[in-house]
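Listing S7. Sequence submitted for prediction.
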Amino acid sequence: MAAVNTTGPAPYIYACTRMKVRKATLIPREEYMRMLNMELPGITRIIEETHYKAEIDELASSFSGIDLVEIALSWNLAKEYQKIIELVPGHLKGFTRSYLLRWDIQNVLTILRGKSQDIPQGRIREITIPAGSLDKNALDRLIAEDSADRIVEALKAHVLYPVFEREMAGAVESGSFAHMENELFKAYYTEIVRAAKGGVKGGHAFLQYIRLDIDTRNLMTLFRVKGSLESDELREMMIAGGTFSVEELVRLAGSESSDEIIETIRNRLNLDSFTEVLETFREEKSVHKIEIALTKAKLDQLDKLAKRYQFSVCPILLYLELKQYEVSNLRALARGKESKLEPESIGACMVV
């Protein structure tokens, strides 16, 4: 076998080319439309014929129905993300690892919430997705701990440990991890913006998407809570580092004019991808539909960045995002069919 070149641009070209190949294997929109008209057993068979076959086969003797589908999807996603980290070279690996820290937040909060609700360890283990820096063994050790304090103590080496330590007492006292979650994501975005601005080659492309990600998250929050929170409460929820300052977002949330909000966002972002979203906001008051539209616009813009910066972190981030939404779409299909929802209702929850 020929040796693989590990120096120069070749590893970066190879990694980004592999992302394009992987992207081409994702389930197309037409297949989702077909599955919307099928029952759960048929959907499971379709999934088993794709890149989820190994996990379906491995788990079929222990699980069935919706549990089989959901756990197989989670296992596949975690394995795929770990493969990507192994595959990408140099600074792309660092950016990818930083970006995937969001899964650590999700997993630790899942464990803490599960413990607080006396959910059995086995069930907590089933719904964690070891796609970040905390692998399966690390998460199993956290799940085995007998208190929230010991879970946090076990995270002492983690980059987000100071936030877990600071917020734990308040979360236990209030019985809610919502404030902790918000503070963790603030710290997470601060960390990856810092990484993008660190002078490492490729940071500019990474920063463009991270700012877009922050903008999307903040706009979702704005549309979700507009008119229902005081300025100080809303200011506490917003994440710094995007195109809009926190104060601008608070001011927009207080505006009674939809036209003002739309034009401010349009002029500031100046992205074709968001034109449809803004019109959705003008015509549609369903927050869920607005969030789906924002997500689609974000992915469309990331696709454009991936084409502009073909051998950067952008094609990697695009694949990671699309893979995550493929899993989310298949989960929505499976859960919807299990709950006997109409195809239109299920489709409205999917990003396709």
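Caption to Listing S7: primary sequence and predicted structure tokens for the chain studied. The two ends are 40 Å apart (CA to CA). The longest helix spans residues 314-338.
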